[in-house]
Amino acid sequence: MKLQPLHIGQLKIEFPVFLAPMAGYTDYAFRSICVEHGAGSTLTEMVNAMGIVRRQPRTLHILETLPAERPVGAHIYGSDPSVMADAAAFIESLNCFDFIDINGGCPVPKIMRRGDGAGLLKNPARMAEVVRAIRQAVRLPITVKTRIGLSAQACNISEVAQGIEEAGADAIFLHARFANVRHAGAANWDLLARIKAERKIPVIGNGGIAVAADIARMIQATGVDGVMIGRAALGNPWIFQQCRALSDEQIATYPSPAEKRAVIVTHLERLTRLTEMEMVYRKKMRQPASTAACLTFRAHIVRYARGFAGFRELATNLQNLETIEKLMDMVDHVLTTQWRRSSQPVDPQGRT
Length: 352
Known about the structure:
By secondary structure, the chain is an alpha/beta fold. The protein is built from 14 helices and eleven strands.
């Protein structure tokens, strides 16, 4: 299936496959790698709107971008319309972002208790008010990332989506799971199809994507205008490359160990530079930037190593990988072990 360009307001997304915002993962180091491997657009980790308004350095650090990763969206959370609007206006003034995305779906309890994230699903009027306030404050396109409801017993997504559209949002990223299950269980693509049929603005589907071939399956099953990939991209930026290949009816291949190593090196180098930037405003750093980057990279390296016979050994020794040298020695060892998953290419129909 050939994927068509998508318009979010005046913004044209040539290839409508997005990298989802994921806390602890989607900094510019990883986002830029995903763009280089074919992602049509990316979003930052979620950023606290109040922290932006207060100009907190550690919060603003999350907004660091690279010129080559555009188009990129700033993913902000909060439930106070005026604070969200002020944060959005500041983001627009940076001239580094192409759209503002509102977090209306984070299921973390401490976020929801404040009425933020998926907590906004309890109050559709407030969510619409947040969209309206931002719409009045910025000229950038506005999107909302939300879920199909708090639970199967509290499924009000039709009301929520209507309010979002009427308030001036330009698109909706819709995770097809309820907040109370987080990422467990099957995604409800039937509800995705229903909301797509009800709304005039673009609806981008999220949830239930495990391999590149799932993109076409979701679009065919629901009619959504684009797809957002989350956990399936962690340690696997090649999934975007595979999506493009399948869109062009070409064979999508898996990376070789050498290709995987090259990306790991690039990722770690960019993460180290990002950590060095963080040191500028942090008064105390208990370890060098390279060590801090290695500690942060642990969450990524276990993803890159999955599927190799040496994965368990890496996971067991993870706490000892405190330097780039030790980390890369372990990577080199793991990449020489047997690849347990299929290395056969995936064809456009998803057969292996």
